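I'll show a sample.
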Amino acid sequence: MRNYLLLLLLLTAACNKKGPQSISYGSDACDMCKMNIMDDKFGAEIVNKNGKVFKFDSAECMVDYVLTGTENLEQFYVTDHSQPKELINVQKAFFLHGENINSPMGGHLAALGTKKEAEKMQQQSGGELLTWEQVKKLRTH
């Protein structure tokens, strides 16, 4: 009986972990536009203060969701375009915005985990490097 209680306690603790979850590409739906999340070079997540995860097919859908005024949003992640399926914190991401970037919702936006990767993609595709704060402002115009 004691072992079962210990196991139950460990399982409960594991379920309450706050943080990003992997995106099931092809089956998870975007919490903003409701389309299936398909492209593993894009995607984003928000974790609220209660640990609930909201998934998005692109950074622009996540920003649009933030701009709806939803409260209790705590952690923000985007998929690293140079490392598909890898989620990174938006504060550490380098965003590239340009007409040659074909993001799922037409926002022409990609997130990259390092400045070196962002500059490499910028040389190939053109565009402008942005911070998370600049991306949010971009979507309000």
The radius of gyration is 17 Å.
